[in-house]
C-alpha cells in the first residue's frame, strides 16, 4: 500500500495541482515528510512554521482576538492558518497543524491535542485529533500522520483533482 506522501504525489502531480503547509506543533515535520518523496518540488511550494502567535497573526492572518479568546489550539486557528498559507504561497491546497505535543494549556486542551486545517478551492475543513502516547516526539509524528491523511482525504473528495 502506498504511503500518504506517495498518494499525495499521485493526486497533485498528475493534475498539475499544488500544496503548502502551515505548521505549529509539527515544527516542519509535515513539510519534511512531503518533500521526502522524489518529485515533490513539482507540487509542494513551501511552508510557514508559525510556532509563535506573532507569526500566526502577522504572516498567516490569524485573528488575534481568536487567539486571545480561544487560544492557538482550536478549530478556528487551524482553519485560518490553512487559509492563510494557501493565500500567501498561492497553492491549490494547504494543510495546517496547531496543537500540544506535551503539556496542557489554559484553554482546557490536554497534551496530545492537535487541530488540523485543510483548505482548497471548495472551502476549508478542520479536524481534531488526539494522541495519548505520552511522548512528545511520538505525538508530533502522529500529528503529521493525521495531517497527511486529512489532506489526502480532502483532495480525494475534491472534484478539482479529477482528470477528465
Write structural notes for this entry.
The protein is an alpha/beta fold and 164 residues long. The protein has a single domain (4-161), classed as Alpha-Beta Complex (Maf protein). Helix content is 41%, strand content 21%. The protein has 6 helices and 5 strands; from the N terminus they run H-E-H-E-H-H-H-E-E-E-H. The protein has helices at 4-13, 29-35, 53-58, 64-70, 75-89, 136-157, and strands at residues 19-23, 44-49, 93-99, 113-120, 123-130. It has a 5-stranded mixed sheet with strand order 2-1-3-4-5. Helix 1 packs parallel to helix 6 (136-157) and helix 2 (29-35) crosses helix 6. The longest helix is centred in the last third of the chain and has 22 residues, at 136-157. The protein is globular, with a radius of gyration of 15 Å. The model has no long low-confidence stretch (mean pLDDT 95).
Annotate the secondary structure layout.
Elements: H1 4-13, E1 19-23, H2 29-35, E2 44-49, H3 53-58, H4 64-70, H5 75-89, E3 93-99, E4 113-120, E5 123-130, H6 136-157
Parallel strand pairs: 1-2, 1-3
Antiparallel strand pairs: 3-4, 4-5
Helix pairs in contact: 1-6, 2-6
Radius of gyration: 15 Å
Helical element count? 6
Q: Structural class per helix/strand content?
A: alpha/beta
Overall average pLDDT? 95
Count of discrete structural domains? 1
Q: Which strand-content bin applies to the residues?
A: 15-25%
Instruction: State the name of the first-level CATH class.
Output: Alpha Beta
Q: Quaternary arrangement of the chains shown?
A: single chain
Spatial order of strands in the largest sheet? 2-1-3-4-5
Order of helices and strands: HEHEHHHEEEH
The termini sit apart by 25 Å
Anisotropy-based shape: globular
Amino acid at each position: 500500500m502506498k504511503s500518504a506522501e506517495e498518494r499525495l504525489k499521485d493526486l497533485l502531480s498528475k493534475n498539475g495541482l499544488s500544496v503548502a503547509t502551515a505548521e505549529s506543533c509539527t515544527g516542519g515535520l509535515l513539510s519534511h515528510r512531503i518533500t521526502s518523496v522524489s518529485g515533490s518540488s513539482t507540487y509542494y511550494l513551501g511552508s510557514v512554521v508559525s510556532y509563535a502567535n506573532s507569526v500566526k497573526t502577522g504572516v498567516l492572518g490569524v485573528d488575534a482576538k481568536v487567539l486571545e479568546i480561544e487560544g492557538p489550539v482550536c478549530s478556528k486557528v487551524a482553519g485560518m492558518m490553512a487559509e492563510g498559507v494557501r493565500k500567501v504561497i498561492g497553492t491549490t491546497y494547504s494543510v495546517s497543524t496547531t496543537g500540544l505535543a506535551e503539556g496542557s494549556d489554559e484553554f482546557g486542551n490536554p497534551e496530545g491535542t492537535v487541530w488540523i486545517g485543510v483548505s482548497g478551492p471548495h472551502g476549508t475543513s478542520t479536524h481534531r485529533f488526539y494522541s495519548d502516547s505520552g511522548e512528545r516526539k511520538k505525538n508530533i509524528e502522529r500529528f503529521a500522520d493525521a495531517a497527511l491523511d486529512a489532506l489526502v482525504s480532502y483532495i480525494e473528495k475534491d472534484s478539482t483533482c479529477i482528470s477528465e
